[in-house]
Design brief:
This protein is α+β, with helices and mostly antiparallel strands. The chain has eleven helices and twelve strands. The chain is globular, with a radius of gyration of 20 Å.
């Protein structure tokens, strides 16, 4: 088996729910990100792309019918380039990257694109089909933006509670205070704003045509823990989780270019990082926020390294409380986590977030010179994924 490498990454800026990207279809967002990553390899003949793996969590609206293939067509790639759409909810695009790396390593392809998209703004309302024609009663339209919908009544009730309530339970279990959560959230905004100001994201973000948005829309400069402490709790009157210490609803897309070592000549770039280890873990659905702990440990073991080797961590911030629970369990220095901001500030368009954190991680390794980094993401209904990268410049 050969090794797989990350060659390039690009994403759109992430928009707020109902914000600047609200008028852009998810398939167009996907095509923008895909075009953006391929623009980094202008010498690459697109017909050499062996496959495209694309993540998407909702898939109930304009992103239905295999949005990965739609992105390929809308981006102007040859019709000979195939594509599939992957749904592992919040982990969809990290799963797409994992599938792409396996395709490279098994020799099924030399060059693969991966990524994901979500427009949470444009996620539609859905109706269940009636069991017979012309029912006499009313029916309810269900929003597909976030969380459980059309729940099977055979599911245990403790599995189907809201994502926020799941994390209030996690807070109770691990004793993570509101103050710590607000401090973590304020840090996310501070670091994201600083990274944009320093130009870190300039080469990672592709603008969306016709949209006047130069950076991620949810970042709030000047956010402090003291300001966040004044927000009302969202899920329990006596709870700890607020709109300020949880990730917002967002729109956006992210893409990656992955290939073998031999593909460097065709791509016209040197690889940035080797995909060195992968991990997947599942547990009780209500405990999903803690699932990255074991997924990351698996990825490290498969890479043949330990936590002491890791110099950079990108952990998707679904909620501050679950991020802190994971960092505490890993017993790592929190200062190596999300140094360019995280999803609480940048945003969490479900299907795009995994590719975002992997691309950010690779570029953090380039900037810092650290050899090893890890990206991890929790996934609703009790799952998580993790990937270890090795900085190619340090090998």
């Amino acid at each position: 088996m050969t090794a797989s490498y990350l060659y390039a990454a690009s994403r759109t800026p992430f928009g707020r729910f109902g914000g600047a990207l609200a008028g852009v279809r998810p398939d167009d967002l996907a095509a923008t990100a895909l075009s953006g990553v391929l623009a980094k390899a202008p010498g690459l003949d697109p017909s050499a792309i062996g496959d495209v793996f694309w993540g998407n969590a909702n898939g109930a609206g304009e992103d239905n019918r295999n949005v990965g293939r739609m992105a390929v067509l809308l981006a102007g790639l040859p019709t000979s380039v195939p594509a599939t759409t992957v749904n592992r909810l919040c982990g969809s695009s990290l799963d797409a990257a994992i599938m792409a790396s396996r395709a490279i390593e098994t020799g099924d392809a030399d060059i693969v694109a991966a990524g994901g998209v979500e427009s949470m703004t444009r996620a539609p309302w859905v109706l269940p089909k009636p069991s017979r024609g012309f029912p006499a009663g009313d029916t309810t339209a269900v929003s597909t933006t976030l969380g459980w919908r059309l729940v099977n009544e055979r599911m245990p009730s403790e599995w189907t509670i809201s994502l926020g309530e799941c994390n209030e339970l996690l807070q109770e279990k691990y004793g993570i205070s509101r103050e710590r959560q607000d401090e973590f959230a304020a840090r996310s905004h501070e670091l994201a704003a600083a990274a944009w100001a320093a130009g870190f994201y300039d080469q990672l973000v592709t603008p969306v045509d016709g949209v006047e948005m130069t950076r991620d829309e949810s970042i709030r400069e000047g956010t402090t823990a003291e300001k966040l402490a004044g927000l009302k709790t969202a899920f329990r009157p006596d709870g700890t989780i607020t709109a300020g210490n949880a990730s917002p609803l967002n729109d956006g897309a992210a893409a990656l270019l992955i290939g073998s070592a031999a593909a460097a000549g065709s791509i016209g770039l040197d690889p940035v990082a080797r995909i060195a280890g992968r991990g997947v873990h599942a547990l009780d659905p209500q405990d999903f926020g803690f699932a990255p702990v074991e997924a990351a440990n698996q990825a490290l073991a498969r890479a043949g390294i330990s936590w002491s080797d890791i110099g950079a961590v990108e952990l998707n911030e679904a909620f501050a409380v679950q991020s802190l629970a994971c960092v505490d369990a890993w017993k790592i220095d929190p200062e190596i986590v999300n140094t360019k901001g995280g999803a609480i500030a940048i945003g969490h368009p479900l299907g795009a977030s995994g590719a975002r954190i992997l691309g950010t991680l690779a570029h953090r390794l380039v900037e810092s010179g650290e050899q090893w980094g890890l990206a991890a993401i929790c996934i609703g209904v009790g799952q998580a994924l993790a990937v270890v990268l090795e900085n190619e410049a340090t090998r």
